[in-house]
Input
Amino acid sequence: MDPAAIAARPCFLCPANLPEAQLGILYRRQFLILCNPFPIFSSHFTISSLEHRPQAIEDNLDVFLYLARDLAPSFAVFYNGPQCGASAPDHLHFQACPVGSLPIETELDDGRLILPISKHLYSSVYRAENLGRATLFIEGSDIGAVKETMQKILAVMKSAGATEMEPMLNIHATFKEGKWRILLFPRQKNRPDLYYLEGTEQVLISPGSVEMGGLLVAPVERDFRRLNPEIIRHIYREVSVHPVLLERWAHQLSLTTD
Output
């Protein structure tokens, strides 16, 4: 949606515009935990700000990390940036799904190459190889240290774009045995070119955190049936940041090692 269309429509996440039958659970006096009306998972929640404010992660890292901890061990929390998957880029929200719903959650533990980038006492950054898309992840036991590490990554990404706008990013978080694991998928495009083709060449895949985590949602049955490893690899390559740029960021982050 273009900014004018977003501004013109009633925000479906504002409390005043929720369906009459929609119930929610108040979270930390600032958010509502709502059942997602278009669920992808058996249990799928949207955690929406009571206040109408833009989708942005940097000023809301605390609540994102608290959510991951408070909903553990049953649920993971994820965030779609305003330019890469957010259904309401004008209203702050997160989502939650059952832990283990995304293939990447087990892929990181299957013995593939994991490269340490920056190791600190309470928070470390790693890069996973051979996933087909750019992936960084953080592991840490102290919320302040994990937040600071996320801020450093955002700063490095911003410096590459020479902008104060939020970098294109999808984030997935779990909390287990006293530690956060934060997966970050840096993006360079919202949608692949295949999305904008016409006729039989069009593939309506619009990647967000779920898709970057390995579960591709196809709204059209035709696309679901024609998806194959080659198309999926093409989509990931196109929407992820280039490996050379990811390597440059990894080097910058490595300079912060204790």
Residues 143-161 form the longest helix (19 residues).
